[in-house]
Amino acid sequence: DTGVSQDPRHKITKRGQNVTFRCDPISEHNRLYWYRQTLGQGPEFLTYFQNEAQLEKSRLLSDRFSAERPKGSFSTLEIQRTEQGDSAMYLCASSLARGLAGYNEQFFGPGTRLTVL
Amino acid sequence: AQRVTQPEKLLSVFKGAPVELKCNYSYSGSPELFWYVQYSRQRLQLLLRHISRESIKGFTADLNKGETSFHLKKPFAQEEDSAMYYCASGDSGNTPLVFGKGTRLSVIA
Predict the structure, then answer these.
(1) Is the CB of B84 inside 8 Å of chain A's CB atoms?
(2) pLDDT, tens digit, for every residue of B2-12?
(3) Beta carbons of A45 and B4 less than 8 Å apart
(4) Peptide bond into A8 cis (omega under 30)
(5) Which chain B residue is nearest to residue A39, measuring alpha carbons?
(6) Cα(first)–Cα(last) distance of chain B, in Å?
(7) Closest C-alpha to A23, from A62, A93, A75, A60
């Protein structure tokens, strides 16, 4: 296991098109997070999963965005009818959460850079 | 809502000089605080976390609840420390992280 992987690494699309990104977490990790990072900003939370259950969605996640983690392993993030403002780096992270207490390290993937023309 | 502030976008220091990257947080509870680092062409990775109280690559960070700060320090900067540094906070229970905007550290030979 070489860590969190994301595919594709780069995506260029035209405004109005749909795009889908994939994230493969570290195999034993039950938590999976999606973040978005724009130029000059830190990563901003979008949504996260515990196994296959989507626990929370940020207000940043408009109705055009949908995320799934169907079998509790890999996850997909789809953006419908892309807009130029969606251009960003989309980061995936995973962690192993044990109970409610404590905080385990989030391991990040390399990101998918989306450019909407 | 949690907020993390990193007041400096860019910090340039000479090799061997002390480094302090500032981070302030706002949170009513007891957050978990972290420093993440991103070296050129590499992914974001954890540098250190406040609960472990350890020194990683010569860096330390002390949580000051009175000043709501978690500044990152290193007594003698090295060229390989040049990177983007992000301060982040999270609730216990592995909730999503809230990141600051980051500080780019440039160590000049």
Answers:
(1) no
(2) 899 999 999 99
(3) no
(4) yes
(5) B101
(6) 41
(7) A75
Q: What is the number of other CB atoms lying within 10 angstroms of the CB of residue A105?
A: 15
Most confident of A23-27, A55-59, A70-74, A95-99: A23-27
The per-residue pLDDT for range A45-90, each reduced to its tens digit, is: 999 999 999 999 998 889 999 999 998 899 999 999 999 999 999 9
Average per-residue pLDDT for chain A:
93
Q: Which residues of A touch B32 (CB under 8 A)?
A: 103
Q: What is the DSSP string of A8-32?
A: -SEEEE-TT--EEEEEE--TT--EE
What are the backbone angles phi and psi of residue B13, rounded to the nearest 5°? Answer: -135, 160
Q: Above 60 in pLDDT, residue A1?
A: no
Helix (H, G, I), strand (E, B) or coil at B28: coil
What is the residue type of B41? R
CA A55/CA B27 separation, integer angstroms: 21
Q: Which of A26, A91, A103 to mutate to test the interface with B (most CBs of B within 10 A)?
A: A103
